[in-house]
């Protein structure tokens, strides 16, 4: 019987949590769920102080032990860091293909796939329509005018940067879980600058 194989891509938990928090703010997730989040905080530290369970999504060692490794052997996982993947795409893609027993092939990243956010709220509805229409989606991906508009007018990079004090507080919150993760996986996550 063939065992399932899993690929996990883990981002620095501080960056992951903050990015997720910012996305939830942009999409009004907290306002849409007042029963879970009756008081909205714009500051990440105040927010996780009020809702500490929100941190759980980035406690990778705990998640692995509790939800995955109690059911599957560690050998069934290929676990890489997002930061390593960004810096060494060809090498990591080769490792992933090898893990799954797939012959190595050249893969190219789509240039319009960038970590950008839509600039205008009405575009969220448009985006959901486009993603459901494969023909339209493929046409737009190959259209130079659309790509120019998408990259220069319709989207923007997040302007919200976490301040150093909050980053340090989150570093202290996550340091034990990251240390446990390093020991569990035998991986030093060299590009996670906060946890060297």
Question: How would you describe this protein?
Answer:
- This protein is mostly helical and 196 residues long.
- It is 53% helix and 7% strand.
- It has 10 helices and 4 strands; from the N terminus they run E-H-H-H-H-E-H-H-E-H-H-H-E-H.
- The strands form 2 sheets. It has a two-stranded parallel sheet with strand order 1-2.
- 12% of the residues are buried.
Provide keyphrases for this structure:
196 residues, mainly alpha, two-stranded parallel sheet, two-stranded antiparallel ribbon, 10 helices, globular
* Morphology call: globular
DSSP, total strands: 4
What kind of sheet is the major sheet?
Answer: 2 strands, parallel
**Reading side by side through the largest sheet, how are the strands ordered?**
1-2
SSE blueprint and pairings:
Layout: E1 6-10, H1 13-26, H2 29-32, H3 44-50, H4 60-68, E2 77-81, H5 82-87, H6 89-99, E3 117-118, H7 122-132, H8 134-142, H9 144-154, E4 155-156, H10 164-185
Parallel strand pairs: 1-2
Antiparallel strand pairs: 3-4
Give a short synopsis of this structure:
Strands 1-2 form a two-stranded parallel sheet. A two-stranded antiparallel sheet has the order 3-4. The chain contains ten helices and four strands. With 196 residues, the protein is mostly helical.
């Amino acid at each position: 019987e063939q065992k399932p194989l899993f690929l996990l891509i883990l981002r620095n938990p501080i960056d992951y949590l903050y990015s997720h928090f910012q996305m939830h703010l942009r999409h009004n997730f907290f306002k849409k769920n007042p029963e879970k989040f009756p008081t909205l905080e714009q500051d990440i530290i105040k927010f996780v102080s009020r809702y500490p369970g929100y941190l759980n999504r980035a406690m990778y060692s705990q998640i692995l032990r509790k939800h995955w490794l109690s059911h599957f052997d560690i050998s069934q996982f290929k676990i890489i860091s997002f930061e390593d993947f960004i810096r060494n795409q060809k090498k990591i893609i080769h490792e992933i293909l090898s893990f799954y027993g797939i012959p190595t092939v050249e893969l190219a990243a789509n240039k319009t796939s960038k970590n950008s956010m839509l600039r205008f709220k009405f575009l969220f509805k448009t985006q959901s329509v486009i993603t459901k229409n494969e023909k339209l989606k493929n046409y737009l991906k190959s259209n130079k005018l659309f790509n120019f508009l998408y990259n220069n007018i319709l989207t923007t990079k997040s302007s919200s940067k976490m301040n150093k004090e909050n980053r340090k507080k989150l570093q202290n919150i996550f340091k034990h879980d990251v240390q446990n993760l390093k020991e569990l996986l035998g991986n030093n996550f060299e590009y996670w600058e906060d946890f060297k």
